[in-house]
Fold each of these.
Amino acid sequence: MPGRIQQAKREFGPDYMLTATKLSKVYADVPAVRTVSLTLAPGQIMALVGASGSGKSTLLSLLAGLTDADTGAVSLNDERVAGPSEVLVPGHKDIRLVHQEYQLMPNVSVRENIRYALRFFEKSYRDFRVDELLRLCRLTEVQDRVPRQISGGEKQRTAIARAIADRPAVLLLDEPFSHLDLPNRLIVRDLLFDMVREEANGLTGSRATSCLFVTHDATDALSIADSLGIMRDGKLIQIGSPVAVYQRPLTAYAAQMTGPVNILKARHLPLLGLPSSASPNELICLRPEQIVLTEGGAVGTIRALFFKGSHYELEIALSRYVLLRLLTTRTDLHIGQQVGIGVANESVWTLKP
Ligand SMILES: Nc1ncnc2c1ncn2[C@@H]1O[C@H](COP(=O)(O)OP(=O)(O)OP(=O)(O)O)[C@@H](O)[C@H]1O
C-alpha cells in the first residue's frame, strides 16, 4: 500500500550523506588516523581495505561518534556528529557500528537481541520486523537460543540484524567477513547487498541505508562495494571504483591490498618481450590474469604450480631475479617445464614509489 510505505519512510527519517573532513586521531604517540576525508552517499557501499594497524577500526569509531577526533569533523548532512566527550550517550542515533566482537546481550535469545533494537516501535510492527529480519538473516531456526548456543556466523548475522533493525542511515561494519566460512560470507555479502540495493531503489519504501565496511581482504570488497578505499598508516591513500583501484593502483601497497599481483622493476620488461622503460628503476605492476601462456613469447621455467579449483596458479622464473605469477586452466603442465608467455604492453601499469 503506497500510503503505508510513505508513512514508513517518514518514520525512518530522510536519506543522509555522511561526510568526514580531515579526521585525525593520535593514541599516545601513535598516529592511528591521519587527515582522512571521505563522503558516503545514501545507498552507497564503500569498503576500506588496509593492513592490520592501518587505522581502519579507529576510523570507524570516529565516524560513529564513539571516539573523539583530535582534529577534523564528521557530519550527517549538515549536522555534526559529536564525539563521546560531548554527549551523555556516545554514538549517533542514525549510525550503527557492528564491532568485530559482535557485542550481543549474552543472556537473552537471538530474537530478543534483535527485538531490543526495536523497543521504541509499536508492538505489531516490532514483531513483524523481527520475523522479517530473522528470515532475511537466516536466523529463524535459532531464534530462541542464546548467543553462546549459536555459531560464529549466526552471531555475526544476529549483530547485523540488530544493527539494521530500525534501518539506520549509516551502517559501519568492522571486518564483517573475517571469522566466517565461505557459505556464511556469501550469506552476509548478499544480505548487505540486498539491504542497501533494495532500499536505495525504493523497494522497501524506507530510506536508503549506506554501508561502509573495513576489511584486510579485498575479495569481498571488490565484488560488493561501489567505492573502494586503501588505508595505509592511518591515511586514505587511494579511493575509487573497485575496477579502477584494482586496475590502476597508485602504489605497490594498493596493488597488493587489492589482489595477487606481480611487481617488478621496469628494467626487466624486455624479459617479458616488452619495450624497456625510460626509467629502469620504476616499479610496474601486472596482474596474473594479464599474462597468458603462448607459443613464441618470452620463455620461462615453471617453478611452482598450485591447484586453485577452477584454475592453476603458476610461478614462472624468467631469470634468476624475475619470478612471475600467472593463472591458467591448462592441466598438462609440470614443474621444470619451459613455457612461453605473452603480455600485452597496455597491461603494464607504472606505480608511484
Ligand atoms: N586504544 C588505543 N590505544 C593506543 N593505541 C591504539 C588504540 N587503538 C588502536 N591503537 C593503535 O592505532 C593504530 C591503528 O589501530 P586500528 O585498530 O585502528 O587499526 P586496524 O587497521 O583496525 O587494525 P586491525 O585490522 O588489526 O584491527 C595501531 O597502531 C594500534 O596499535
Amino acid sequence: MHFALLYANNYLRDEPLLVTVGDDLVGELQPGCQVLFSPVNNTRRSVIGYVTEITDPPQPNQPEGIITDILNSGKPVLTPITLQLSIWIADYYMTHPIEAINAILPAPLKTKVSETVELTDFQLTAGNNRKVVSTSLRKEILKLLQQRKKLTVKQLENQLGKQNLYRTLIEMERGGLVTLKKAFKVAKPKTKTAYRFRQPYMQQELLRAPRQAAAVKQLHALETSWGFPEQLGITTGIARELVKKGIFEPIKVETGTEFSTEFSESKKTIKHLTDSQQRVLNSLLSGFRSGSFATYLLHGITGSGKTIIYIELLKEVLSAGKTAIVLVPEISLTPQTASRFRQYFGNDIQILHSAMNNQEKYNAWQKLRSGKAKIALGARSTVFAPLQNVGAIIVDEEHDMAYKQDRTPRYNGRDTAVMRAKLEGALCVLGSATPSFESFYNAKSKKYSLLTLPERVDGATMPSIKLIPMRENRKVSFSISEVLYEEIKKRLERNEQVILLQNRRGFAGSLLCLDCGEIPTCKHCNIPMVYHAATRQLRCHYCGHTVFYLEQCPHCSSANILYKSSGTERIEEELHKLFPEEKILRMDVDTTGVKGAHAMILNDFHEKKARILLGTQMVAKGLDFPDVTLVGVLMADIGLNIPDFRAGERLFALLMQVAGRAGRSKIPGEVYLQTYNTDNDVFSFLLRGSYEKYYHLDMQARKALQYPPYAKLVSCEFSSTEEDIAQKASEEFAEALKPHLHSATFLVLGPAPAGIARIRGRYRYQVLLKLPGKKISADFLKKMRYSLMSKYSRNNLSITIDVDPQSMM
Ligand SMILES: Nc1ncnc2c1ncn2[C@@H]1O[C@H](COP(=O)(O)OP(=O)(O)OP(=O)(O)O)[C@@H](O)[C@H]1O
Ligand SMILES: [Zn+2]
C-alpha cells in the first residue's frame, strides 16, 4: 500500500489528510499534484485535493480515503515553493492551508470543468506508434476520438463504461497521441446600450424639446464618443426619440472594468542611465549575481526613473536563465507601466489581470507554468505565478494598500513577495517614492537594504508646493479658489496640462441639512449616503442601496443643504462653468466602469485631446505626462479624518504622489493644496519635501502608542445578524485572551462596535490586539475562534481574524 498526505476542499483543517494511493497512480504522483480523492465512507463522492507529500512506509493513522485520479495532465499545479508559501500563509495569516492553496490557484484551474481530449496532428499523420497504442483500452479511446475529434474526459469515461481514465490519457499524452486541456465556455461579455451621434454633431441643429437639447449638449461634452442614457440625463425613451430623428444611433458597449492594452505610447529610447540610476542598478545587479536572497527598498522620488531600472535588472535575470515577477497595485490604473514592460519584453512577459475570462486565465497560467513566458506582471495574486527558478520579484508602488487582500486569506502581496523571494533565493525589490513606514523602518533597521534616487532624471526638478488657506481666500466657485483658478488659466494659455485631485469619493457628496442637521444615512449600513446628481439619487457605497433625492432634506424638507465636500462630478460642473470652452476629463469609479475606460481617458490626456484631468486617487498613481505643470488638490484635508492610525502616512503619501505628477520634464511644476487646516504636520513637512522627517515624527507617536512597526496588530471581527450575539462573543473572546497574555507584552483593545458598525444587515464588533512581543500562538486564537463559532453557530456568528490589518473601518 502507498500513502500520501493532502489538503482537500471542504476539509477546513490545519493538518493534511492521510490517504491511500491507487496502485496504478504510484509513480505518477508528485507533491503539488491536483488529485481527485474519494473519502472512505463515501466512495461515490470525489473531492479535489492537493498532495503535499508521498509517504512510505505508512503512518499508524487510518487513511481517510483514496486518491483515484490525477488532474492537470499529471503535472503538479503547485511548485515546491508555492506549496511552501501556502503553508506559510496559512500559518502567518491564521487561515487553513486549503484556503491558501485556493488563493494561489486561479479560478479556472479549480473548477470542475472536465478536461477535453483531442487527437494530436502527430497521431493523424504519423500512423500508429505500436508501443504506445498497444492496449485495447487505448485503441478504443483512439477509435472514439477519430469519430468525434474532441471529447471531455467524462464523456469518454461514460462511453467506455470505465472510470478514472486520466492515468491512461496522461500516458497517451506523453506518447504524443492526444492532448489534454481544459476548454471553457467563453461567456459573452455583458453589454449595455449607449448612444452616439449618427453624423458629426452640428451646432445649427435646433431642438425644441429641452431635454433632448440638453442630452445632445451633454453627449458633446463627454470624453467618450458615446454615452449611456443616465450619463446624458435622459430616459431610454427620449434616447429613442433622438434615434428616430436621426441624431443619435444606438451602439452596444461592453461593461465591466477590464485592463486594456490599448494604451499606446511610442517607445522612448533612453540613451543612458543617470549616475544615480546606474549606481542603484549596479547594487541590484551585484545582489542578483550573488545568487542569494535579499530585499532592497528602492526609495526613488517621483520621476526619478525607477521603471527603467526594473527593466534593466529583468534583462539580466532573463539572460541568466531565470524568471521574474512584477507586482503593480492595480493593473487597470497603470496601463502605462504595463505597456512599458511589454515594449521591452514582448512575448516573454505575461500580463495577468482580473478581467480576463477563464480561458484566457487558464492559458496564461499554463504559459507561465510551462516556462513559455518568463515574466509575470500583475496585481497582488501574481505573487503566486507558477514560475520556477524565480530570480527576482519587484513590487512597484510598494506602499499601496491594494496589496492587502480584504477577504480570506488576508495576505499582503508585498510581504508575501518578500517571503517568496526568500524561499526562491531570489532578489526582492520594493520600490516607491513614498515607501510604507513599515518598509522604511525595515530599511532603517537593516532588514532591507536601502537604495535611493534623490533626483529626477533629465534635469527635471521637483515641483514647488504651496498651500491655499481656504478661509482667507476668495472663491470663484464652490470648490475652487481664485488663486487656483488663475493658475489653471495660466497653464491653459500656455497649452500645458493640469491634474486636479479630489480625495476619496466616499466622503464627497455627503449631505448635511443646515436647518435640522439631518445627514441621510443608509438604513442597512448606517453610513452617510452620497449624492449623485446625474441620477438624482443617494447611494450607499457599501451595499449599493439607492433612494431618490429631490435636493431637499428628507427629514424637514428644507432646501438649505450643505454639500459637505463636493464629488468629482460636481467639480466637473464647476469647471465647465469656469472654462466653458475646455474639454474636461474626469476619472473616477463612475467614468471607469466600462471596458478599457482608464486607458481611454489616459490616452486622450496623453494625446492632449484635453488639458484638464480631474479625478479621485486614481490620478495620483504613476502617471508620467511631460506637459503636466500644475497639480491642484481641492480639499487637501480630506483623508485626515479617517479613523485609522495610518491616516497621516496615507495622506502624506497621496499628496506627495499626486504632486509628483507635475513638472516631470523641462518645464518646472507647481502644486497647490487648498486646505482648511494649514497647521497640520502633514502639510508643513510636505512643503519642505521631507518624507523622512515626517516619518520620524510619526514614528515617535507610533512608538508611544505601540502601533506598527513597534507592535504587530491582529484585528478580530465578530459579526452576526443579532447585535447582542456579536457583542457577547467579542466580550467572551477578549476575556478569554487576557489571562493568556502578559500585560507587558500585549494590549487588548475593545471590544467596540466597528468603525462601520453594520454592513449588509450584520452587526460588527472588533477586538484589536497589539502585540509588541510579535508572537501569539496562532493555534490558540484559532481554537478560541472555533469554540465561539460552534457555541453561537445558531446565531449566525462569524469571526474574522485579520493579521496586519490595513484598514480598520
Ligand atoms: N536616464 C534617463 N534619461 C532620460 N529619460 C529617462 C531616464 N530614465 C527614465 N527616464 C524617463 O523619465 C520618466 C520618469 O520615469 P519613471 O516613470 O520610471 O519614474 P518613476 O521613478 O517610476 O516615478 P513615479 O514614482 O513618479 O512613478 C519616464 O518618462 C522615463 O522614460
Ligand atoms: Zn448600505
